[in-house]
Amino acid sequence: MTILTILEYPDPRLRTVAKPVEQVDDNVRTLVDDLFETMYDAPGIGLAASQVDVHKRIIVIDVSQERDTPHVFINPVLEGLGEEAPVEEGCLSIPGYYEQVIRYEAVKVEALNRSGETFSMTATDMLAVCIQHECDHLEGKLFVDYISPLKRNRIRRKLTKAKRARA
Ligand code: GNR
Ligand code: NI
């Protein structure tokens, strides 16, 4: 197992639109395992392959307190359900910043599991929020795209400066 490097905003590679997985093979399963290891290590409640510069439609999530309820979604297709409501989000690719964004309160998601079988589930609460956040990553979209340009530019400048200081 390998802990992968997470790209940080405003890295342009985070804007790449991910491609569908054609075959759920051992290479894909190894990537899924590495995504989980990277997510648990971070620690985060979700991770999209896009964030580790692999532009395939794969996301992993575990919103449980006990960190014992992993979910993997390959080629996910989302349908928003219910009302839209503001929620506070963070992102491992935008470390240290939290902003309110509008999300559906529930989603239906159809995807492939790690055996390559189609499944469907409906999710609510934090799992629904996280699925929407991760599916955005696969489209090259980040939560800062929903906030004001003023706030977004402030975050961009601070992260760019922090990265310069680290280098
Ligand atoms: O760890 C994460 N926490 C989080 C909190 C609120 C809404 C979404 C998230 S996802 C984030 C991990 C991440 O960046 N996934 O892409
Ligand atoms: Ni994120």
Structural features, described:
The protein is α+β, with helices and mostly antiparallel strands. It is about 30% helix and about 30% strand. The chain has three helices and five strands. It has helices at about 25-40, 125-140, 150-165; strands at about 45-50, 60, 70-90, 100-110, 120-125. The protein has a five-stranded antiparallel beta sheet with strand order 1-2-3-4-5, sandwiched between helices. The model has no long low-confidence stretch (mean pLDDT about 100). The structure holds ligand GNR and nickel (II) ion. Nickel (II) ion binds near residues 91, 92, 93, 133 and 137.
Task: Supply database-style keywords.
single chain; alpha+beta; 29% helix; 5 strands; binds nickel (II) ion; 3 helices; 5-stranded antiparallel sheet; 167 residues; binds ligand GNR
Describe the SSE topology.
Layout: H1 26-41, E1 46-48, E2 58-61, E3 71-89, E4 99-112, E5 118-124, H2 125-138, H3 149-166
Antiparallel strand pairs: 1-2, 2-3, 3-4, 4-5
Bound molecules: ligand GNR and nickel (II) ion.
